[in-house]
Amino acid sequence: MHSGDYFALAKNSLFHRKMRSWLTVLGIIIGIAAVVGLVSIGQGFEKSLTEQLDVFGGNVVFISPGNVDADAMFDSGGFGGAQTLTGKLTTTDIAMLKGINGIEYVDGIVSQRADVVFRAEISTITVEGTNADLWKIFNIVDIEKGRILSASDRRVAVVGNTIAKDTFDKEIKAGDMIEIKGVSFRVIGVLKSGSGFAAAMVDNSISIPMQDAKDLFQETGSNEVNAIIIKAYDSADLSRVVKDIELRLDASHKNPPGEHDFSITSSDTLKARVSQITSTFTFFLGGIAAISLLVGAIGIANTMFMSVMERTRTIGILKALGAKNKDIRNIFLVESSMIGFIGGLIGVAIGSLFGIGLGIVMSGAQTRMSGMSFAPAITAELIIFAIAFSVIIGVLSGYFPARRAAKLNPVEALRYE
Question: What span, in angstroms and rounded, lies between the C-alpha atoms of 276 and 402?
Fold first, then answer.
């Protein structure tokens, strides 16, 4: 028998048992659709987070006071606003770090929650003191109205979009006056909303000149900062730069060997953490979806066993006409693989639509919450894998029924009623 004969016989079998065939295919469709939809969402989420972190560049280092997880810098919508400080960082540290080879820019941030008054309304907001060059160097936010801080500014503020539009009854606009801890500031700019992960950190905060923040939040003469942000040159070895930072700060702070009173997180470290978390999440989603595939595989095996029983006399006739055991086996394997292929093809299409639809819904919710958005990562690799996997499931599920059919005694098969 030729390979074309296998496909012709398999096709005829499927079309003569349409209801059973489509019910069997449905099991594979559901499983593959679930795998493609959920895995694409997980991969899309990882890709989105990585892209948002890339806004900073792959050469950024965050230093926070105390031996705590530096990721806490992002928890309160600002730099350093949510940390329990068990150590100190100062402008002396900033000056010292500027001497490390490979560092392009070093700056500090003074951050604190404070009562802000606008038109007789009071709200507690994260207020951050920054130098004018910070946002210019990192270029991570856009201005909707007005301008960003400049070096000569005093008693002015740049307001995050959420603060400007949602915190008070009336919208804060460029030119308005606000009070921070009883001191008047003129609003010179309002940030755009929806600029991604980086902008989400400042969307719920107010930025003022560094000296103004020190005057508001610190004792006279204090040189303490809540966080230090470092940008290394693109050509620099970031791991070496981080090691040099640790050595210099440990020596300056007179820390015991192996102990730090500060925490360092690089953009590469954040990406690795994001990748680890989202990969685990994707694997978990894929595992759940794989249960549906297992049910589908059982359905294929059941259908193929029933097909062998119903076609026992046909098998006997084929063997009497000269068909070999491998020919009978191949007929049933081709039939089961066709079930897997058709189910995989339709499942990929449905799963892609499901992923896109769910991605739109989740993206809208995520954008409203944090300014971030993402789309499912429906890649060619995922599609090819899903279809190939469904075919493999079909072949494996049909193997034992096919083997049983191939071993039937032709004489007994012809006598079967």
Answer: 42
**Phi and psi (nearest 5°) for 374?**
-155, 160
Distance CA(280)–CA(274), nearest Å, equals 10
Kindly give the pairing relationship between strand 177-180 and strand 143-146.
unpaired
Cα separation, 53 vs 47, whole angstroms: 10
CB atoms within 10 A of CB 360: 13
Which of 174, 229, 212, 200 lies closest to 60 in space, CA to CA? 229
Other CB atoms within 10 A of residue 114 CB: 20
Q: How far apart are CA 358 and CA 2, in angstroms?
A: 45
Residue 65, φ and ψ in degrees, nearest 5 = -70, 145
Tracing tokens 């493999």 back to the chain, one arrives at: 392
Rg over alpha carbons for the chain, rounded to the nearest Å, is 32
DSSP strands (E only) in 181-249 = 183-191, 205-209, 224-225, 227-232
Q: Is 64 helix (H, G, I), strand (E, B) or coil?
A: strand
β-partners of residue 105 are 231
Neighbours of 152 (CB within 10 A): 8
- Geometric angle at alpha carbon 153, from 191 and 138, rounded to 5°: 45
Dihedral angle sign, alpha carbons of residues 274, 276, 277, 282: positive
The token pair that represents 217 in the structure block:
């939040």
The DSSP result for 295-315, as a single string, is HHHHHHHHHHHHHHHHTHHHH
How do residues 220-272 score in pLDDT, each as one tens digit? 678 899 999 998 888 888 889 999 999 999 888 888 887 888 888 887 777 77
CA distance 414 to 243: 80
* Residues near 359 by beta carbon (within 8 Å), at least 6 away in sequence: 40, 41, 44, 374, 375, 376
Neighbour count for residue 276 (Cβ, 10 Å): 11
Q: What does the angle CA 77 – CA 79 – CA 83 come to, to the nearest 5 degrees? A: 90
Structure tokens at 403: 């083997």
Q: Where are the beta strands (DSSP E) in 238-355?
A: 262-266
Residue in 192, 218, 190, 195 with CA at minimum distance from that of residue 206? 190
Angle at 352 between CA 349 and CA 353, to 5 degrees: 90
Cα gap 287→243, rounded to integer Å: 39
**Tens digits of residue pLDDT in 179-219:** 999 999 999 999 887 545 555 567 888 999 999 999 999 88
Residue recorded with tokens 């606008």 = 118
